Known about the structure:
The complex is a heterodimer. By secondary structure, chain A is mainly alpha-helical. Chain A has a single domain (59-179, 193-321, 329-355), classed as Orthogonal Bundle (ABC transporter involved in vitamin B12 uptake, BtuC). Chain A contains 15 helices and 2 strands. A two-stranded antiparallel sheet of chain A has the order 1-2. In chain A, helix 3 (30-50) packs parallel to helix 14 and helix 10 crosses helix 12. Chain A is globular and about 70 Å long. The model of chain B is unreliable at 1-9 (pLDDT under 50). In chain B, helix 1 (2-9) crosses helix 8 (200-210), helix 2 packs parallel to helix 12 (281-300) and helix 7 (180-198) crosses helix 8. Helices cover 71% and strands 1% of the residues of chain B. Chain B contains 13 helices and 2 strands; from the N terminus they run H-H-H-H-H-H-E-E-H-H-H-H-H-H-H. Chain B has a two-stranded antiparallel ribbon. Chains A and B meet through helix 7, helix 13 and helix 15 of A and helix 6, helix 11 and helix 13 of B.
Amino acid sequence: MTEIETVPPAERTRGEGLAAKVLRIGLTERIVLLAVLLVVVVVWFRVLGAGGYLVAPYDLRYLGNALESMVPFALLAVAELFVIVSGRGGIDLSVGAIVSLAGMVFGFMVGVWGWPLLPSILGCIVVGALLGAVNGALVAYVRFPALIATLATYYAYSSLALISNANAPISTPPVVALHSLTRNVNLPAPLPPVPLHVFTILLPCAVLAWVVLSRSTYGRSLYAVGTNDVAAAYATQSVARTRFTAFVLSGLLSGVVAVVTVGQFASARPDAGIVGNGMALPAITVAVLGGVAIQGGIGRVGGVLVAALLITWLNAGMLLAFPEGAEGSRYQLLALGLVLVLSALLNTLALRRYGRLA
Amino acid sequence: MTTVTKDVAAPVRRRPRVRAIEGQELALIAVVGLLWVVLSLVTDTFLTTGNLQNILFTVAPIALVGIGMTAVIVTAGIDVSVGSQAAVVMVIVALLVRDSGLPFLPAVAVAVVIGLVLGAVNGLLVAYGGIHPIIVTFGTLNIYRFVSLQIFGTEQVAGVPATLAPIGGGLEGRLLGVPTAWWLTLLLAAGMWCYMRYWATGRHLYAVGGDAFAARLAGVRVRRRQISAYVLTGACVGLAACVLIGSGGLVQQNVGTGLELRVIAAVVIGGTSIIGGRGTVLGTLLGALLVGTVSSAVTLLSWPSELTQLFIGLFILVAVGVDLLRERRRSAR
């Protein structure tokens, strides 16, 4: 099936030509590849816009606005990053359901029980972390396969979210007022207005995630466990606790996304994260595109963020290119599917040829 | 279940006794039976012909797709694209039946062929692309949904004639009072059960799921077996799509969303191990029956219908938990 022959990189890179070098960097340095693709996408849509094929200008202002939809997917993709890196088939299908349920709890706190904002936000994030802890306990300690544990909790959490307010959204005045959390902020002249929560939520979370993954003992332990959990156990790493924490962090990030989505919709919707194909699927797609290997042990925050940006701007462009009703969102489905399969193929290729991926 | 795996994976001196029904299946029969007894005592509407026919009919598509999905999961794969596959088949067949007046048998044949093709795409990507099955099928889930929406155009397909009613719901779709779709399911399941138990290639499915590398060394054509499992699932989806079209004259754009989760739930509740190598079609049928019974019960007791999902989630956890426990005891011995 998927045996990966690890060839020492040194043997491959010695005496290679320019074309081979470009190929190697393109395959193994995921951020470089994504940055090139990002430029291609932006230039392509700019050209389409100049030729009059778009219904609205694909300019800086539009790209700035589009960042609003990037925030949830980028955060959930980072959540998947933690879980997938932890290895042994790690995956979290329940993130969308956690967004729904934690969002409903947030809605109750702010809109029904009249809690002040800050404790409510904290409460929402704690609820997310607790729901993630259930997943983590099942996977790490009871040793359920992650796919099944999170499938079961996906059902359970989304059911609770739907039942909690009899399938109705909560949009009392205090909840509606939360929309100001996601207002645009004006930046100095050449830069367009950018949604506030890019600065208040996305960037801090991304920096924290980066610090945890690349600069902390926990991060090292997580990569070790994901690469080879038997070896990690011999190296005195507590494998179960490391995996458990990965799921808790995933739930915690989903709780943060719950706050964001309640703000964006100006209402706590019970189906926020599960409507249609749900939020888990795009999150996993972005993570895989960002260079996270599904086998575990490989993946970086930077790659995931650039991948999220690429998908966001691609989606935004397609909405302008296909003016007719649902046609744009239909092509978004196609693009998401193709991108997922192709980037997974790319990951396999890179791992086979160079034995590494980053 | 284990007897089969052991038989394939390692030479056993004494041929183990062949048992038709294993532990998990017995437990499921007990649970379903208990539920039926309790429900017929608590409500006066459960044990009516109409309700039982209804349960069997609504469960039929899940069970049908589950037959293929059992094979896929036994090979340590997974197919989350079945809902979108069903959408593609349904829109094409419904349009052909409505606009070109396709008769019953050709319609079923077309549905199965489209299903086969869609399954083959998944199978080829899994076997030769070296991509994890969940990633492949997540991708094709989106792509197939795009294809179906593109064919739909902007609206639903309404006014589909009752060509497929013989395997749909209603009076015409029954034989001896049991929905024809369920007879079809039983027939197919029996065939699959024999295939996976007695035919060499069928037993190879278990070998692939148990340890693909060892299976290859033992001369199993691993890639072919993987492809065949996904193709089989596609064909089952084609049949299930016919059953779904047969039940009404309307095909909406969101058909099949969430089907994959219900099917996987039925398979897993039925005792098939998600890491591969273990499971039977009989278990899947019982799992699907349990899911159908629970959702019928929630409706009859006039609880909020969303509770069904909570119960399915809990059943998955219990079923897999019991399986893990047994596995641990077995390896400790």
